[in-house]
Amino acid sequence: MMENQRTEYIQAEDYERSEGRRTQRNGYYERDLTTRVGTLELRVPRTRDDAFSPTVFERYQRNEKSLLASMLEMYISGVPTRKVSKIVEELCGKSVSKSFVSSLTEQLDPLVKEWQNRSLSDKNYPYLITDVVYIKIREDNRVLSKSCHIAIGITEDGDREIIGFMIQNEESDDTWSVFFEYLKDRGLKGPSLVISDVHKGLVSAIRKSFTNTSWQRGQVHFLRKIFSSIPKKDSKPFKEAVKAIFKFTDIELARTAKNVLVSEYSDQKKYSKACEILDNGFEDAFQYTVIGAGHNRLKSTNLLERLNQEIRRREKIIRIFPNRASTNRLIGAVLMDLHDEWLSSTKKYIKFDQ
């Protein structure tokens, strides 16, 4: 069959002189073809122009592409490369080395890099949610903790997008500034509100990088800090009063309730520290009521923390990344996957018309 197909491709029989001849025969090469009933050792005819391929391999090539795509999907889902090779061996009866799986995953690098550096200039992101997640990376036979800065943008239409991530050596004023400049270089316009928790150097970097931008302090962590400064015993009335303040979406009402609580409890020694924390951090914790029209999803970093959990789920399997390149590859692939999932959703994350 392959010989007949080569003859049809060349448009001439063996030793036939023909004006319609496309090319010349060029011997054979050996190739295995794995089928359901075993492996066939084939002598495959070839042509001098190297453009001929028997149709017997078309299905094989399609299956091979599907298999490679499935292997990449397993890797992105957090399956270790060693286990990927075992799964392929069980499915196909052929073993693939761990190093082959690793080299295959490198095909993701240009895709991740392109997505990581795509332009942001065609959209406005009035709300920016930022956070950092720490991962372990092996460098020069040492296991080091690295920071991965991540940003989510909320568009004017209420859609959420992962707009950037960057792996750096630490978390500081300088690294946050570098991260924000990276976003701005790609076309990010100054957001109206940046939502984050109190990370080292972050608030300072926001003020330096984004002028005329408000900072919304994550309320969940803020509440935890307040409650961590009071005794557990007999503190329920105080806790309930504080929680009631954080239910307001009108800053004036919230401020009035806060002032009443502070005046009532600040003279009590066991609540004085909590009242001080609440009073000092109140304005930053309620900026979403002024800038974000009181939308509850803008008062915390819960969205990004759920995203961080997806990264953590993969990290628990890998435990220690072998190098920075593999870290960028896997985290980037995971974030790309989630980003595409968000874009395909028909639901708005925030409905600004309400």
Automatic annotation (TrEMBL):
<dbReference type="Pfam" id="PF00872">
    <property type="entry name" value="Transposase_mut"/>
</dbReference>
<keyword id="KW-0815">Transposition</keyword>
<dbReference type="GO" id="GO:0004803">
    <property type="term" value="F:transposase activity"/>
</dbReference>
<keyword id="KW-0814">Transposable element</keyword>
<keyword id="KW-0233">DNA recombination</keyword>
<dbReference type="GO" id="GO:0006313">
    <property type="term" value="P:DNA transposition"/>
</dbReference>
<comment type="function">
    <text>Required for the transposition of the insertion element.</text>
</comment>
<protein>
    <recommendedName>
        <fullName>Mutator family transposase</fullName>
    </recommendedName>
</protein>
<comment type="similarity">
    <text>Belongs to the transposase mutator family.</text>
</comment>
<dbReference type="GO" id="GO:0003677">
    <property type="term" value="F:DNA binding"/>
</dbReference>
<feature type="compositionally biased region" description="Basic and acidic residues">
    <location>
        <begin position="14"/>
        <end position="27"/>
    </location>
</feature>
<dbReference type="InterPro" id="IPR001207">
    <property type="entry name" value="Transposase_mutator"/>
</dbReference>
<keyword id="KW-0238">DNA-binding</keyword>
<feature type="region of interest" description="Disordered">
    <location>
        <begin position="1"/>
        <end position="27"/>
    </location>
</feature>
